[in-house]
Amino acid sequence: MSLITLLGLMAATCTTVSFIPQAIKTIQTKNTSGISLGMYALFASGTLLWLLYGIGNRDMPIIIANGITLVFATIILIYKIRFK
Prior knowledge:
By secondary structure, the protein is mainly α. It is built from four helices and no strands.
């Protein structure tokens, strides 16, 4: 594994893991009052595009990070829409 790939995986881990507390809190409390619907919709769209970019380039750190982050962002977005 190259140093660049390792660096990408470490960055992916940090940014992806940062979503776990928000997702857990949102799921437990169903409180999304402090979350912007527009921001999360745009963020989830951007994450999907990054995922597709990573797939197109066969870039595993981008694929892994954005695949997992998209799941968390989508969960939060669904809760935001469902529990207004």
